[in-house]
UniProtKB/TrEMBL annotation:
Stretch forming the signal peptide: none
The keyword Chloroplast belongs to this UniProt entry's keyword annotation: no
Protein name listed in UniProt: Pyridoxal phosphate homeostasis protein
Keywords: Pyridoxal phosphate
N6-(pyridoxal phosphate)lysine sites (modified residues): 36
Organism (species): Candidatus Pseudomonas adelgestsugas
A Pfam cross-reference name: Ala_racemase_N
Amino acid sequence: MSTIANNISQISKRIRAAAQAVQRDACSIHLLAVSKTKPSQAVREAYAAGMQDFGENYLQEALSKQAELTDLPLNWHFIGPIQSNKTRAIAKNFAWVHSVDRLKIAQRLSEQRPADLPPLNICIQANISGETSKSGCTPDQLVLASAISALPRLKLRGLMVIPKQTKDRAAQDAAFTTLRDLQSSLKLPLDTLSMGMSHDLESAISKGATWIRVGTALFGARDYG
Ligand SMILES: *Cc1c(COP(=O)(O)O)cnc(C)c1O
């Protein structure tokens, strides 16, 4: 087995164990392979090992990988910060966007979503740590969810968070519980909690994650050269 295939099987075991610990059906937890900084060959290997959903943070990098992988039926998720001048390309080339945090960006994505594609799946990124330097809506700003849910070419699915990194399980659990509570407080028909990464996926699953976004544990450490 290749390293990537082996990693995927390890992650699947972690998902099953974490789901079982809280009596969740492991099928309700989707694994997003975060391929940022990794070459298209690594995506091919992950696809061969059963992965179909890939997450990218940087538009140019994603577009060049997509161009090299047109022979594969992949679902691309945009998970990085979004500038207004990137919305047209994102609306055209992705199935999901997990990192919407402004109404203006959502409006542009809706206007620019090509008519021949299904509605773009959207998660609103929440900032629950109160760090103003971070992307994401503060809990107060999440009222924009109802305006986003009314946009015609988008399908609002739920919330996404990147909590402050910690090894402390209780702190991880508290952050993910906060996101889940925020999602229910919106009183909208949402089915997605995008939360949990390589180091905290067990906690996220215990608090209801439906997409976990895993890079390092799947593709190995990233080398930002
Ligand atoms: C890089 C990244 C991930 C993956 O993080 P790992 O710790 O490598 O698993 C998940 N979500 C987002 C938004 C990221 O930018």
